[in-house]
Design a protein that fits this description.
- The chain is an alpha/beta fold and 309 residues long.
- It has two domains: 129 residues, Response regulator (Rossmann fold, 3-Layer(aba) Sandwich), CATH 3.40.50; 157 residues, Alpha-Beta Plaits (2-Layer Sandwich), CATH 3.30.70.270.
- 46% of the residues lie in helices and 18% in strands.
- The strands form two sheets. Strands 2-1-3-4-5 form a five-stranded parallel beta sheet, with helices on both faces.
- Strand 3, helix 3 and strand 4 form a beta-alpha-beta unit.
- Helix 8 crosses helix 9.
Length: 309
């Protein structure tokens, strides 16, 4: 492992200090160690810190390890964390139960430190490769920014958060003006390069805020998801979106409105209520996009969705 790569995090969940000492001594040189002395604490740390792997005792006071495993595997935000049971329950039935609940491995105490190190190393390496493949699957292959699948997943999560916190959520939809004419005139290779330049401009510093998500939705259409952006911020950021592309000065000799590539932009702001649903929010922003096109393109239109009574 490179000295510049952060150490993977292993969460040890066990109510026995002596067991924790053995596991921490085996793994402490290669991993960041976090400790949970109960099932409830294990769930809490898994949700807030997202460790790379959990070593889980089956027998703990309150919520036992099997219940912890079942709970973590049932929640999207923790389902991907690999779990290894490390327990004194050594029967075939106990092992089968743990593996059936979603654990990737099962070790019976007393454990051998070399075996623990080897098992953890193998599963950590597998998780790193899996995470890399999943991250690549969430990127658009042409522009190297998040793709539609990534956007949909993030939007659903942000909508749930907005509903819980009663905070605003803004969606921006933008479409490159006269992109078909651009492709017809310059060829699809130049069209692909145009898409990459637009994506790079939007994903670059200064266009949006940290935490905002920019994605290619499909074709020449791009979307931005802006948590906690109310009407005033949404209007400002949507206009910044439009200006950033125009300022890039990508030549477009077949546009009827500008010598440069431009975008039409629509946005919708939800603040709880009926608007805080992905289909509703997207349809509202898309209608605003078409109004921007009808108004002459290279323009911005937006709406604030009603709040439920």
């Amino acid at each position: 492992m490179s000295p510049f790569t952060p150490k993977p995090t292993v969460l040890i969940a066990d109510d026995g200090p002596e067991n924790i000492d053995v596991l921490a001594a085996a793994l402490g040189d290669d991993y960041r160690i976090k400790i949970a002395l109960s099932g409830d604490k294990c769930v809490e740390i898994a949700q807030t810190d997202s460790p790379d792997l959990i070593l889980l005792d089956a027998m703990m006071p309150g919520m036992d390890g099997y219940q912890v495993c079942q709970m973590l595997k049932s929640r999207p935000e923790t389902a991907g964390i690999p779990i290894i049971f490390v327990t004194a329950l050594g029967s075939e039935h106990d092992e089968e139960r743990g593996l059936r609940l979603g654990a990737i491995d099962y070790l019976v105490k007393p454990v051998s430190q070399p075996i623990v190190r080897a098992r953890v190393r193998n599963h950590i390496h597998l998780k790193i490769k899996t995470d890399l493949l999943e991250s690549l699957a969430l990127l658009d292959g042409l522009t190297n920014i998040p793709n539609r699948r990534h956007f949909n997943d993030a939007a659903e999560a942000e909508i749930r958060r907005a509903l819980r916190s009663n905070r605003p959520l803004t969606l921006i939809v933008a479409d490159i003006d006269f992109f078909k004419l651009y492709n017809d005139a310059h060829g699809h290779g130049a069209g692909d390069q145009c898409l990459r330049e637009v994506a790079g401009t939007l994903a670059g510093e200064g266009v949006f805020r940290p935490g905002d998500l920019i994605a290619r939705y499909g074709g020449e259409e791009f979307v931005a998801l802006l948590p906690d952006a109310g009407a005033e911020s949404a209007a400002l950021l949507a206009e910044r979106f439009r200006k950033a592309i125009e300022a890039r000065e990508i030549p477009h000799g077949h546009s009827t409105i500008s010598p440069w590539v431009t975008v039409s932009v629509g946005y919708a702001v939800a603040h709880g209520g009926i608007g805080t649903q992905l289909d509703t929010l997207f349809e509202a922003a898309d209608r605003q996009l078409y109004q921007a096109k009808a108004a002459g393109r290279n323009s911005v239109r937006g709406t604030l969705l009603p709040v439920a009574p």
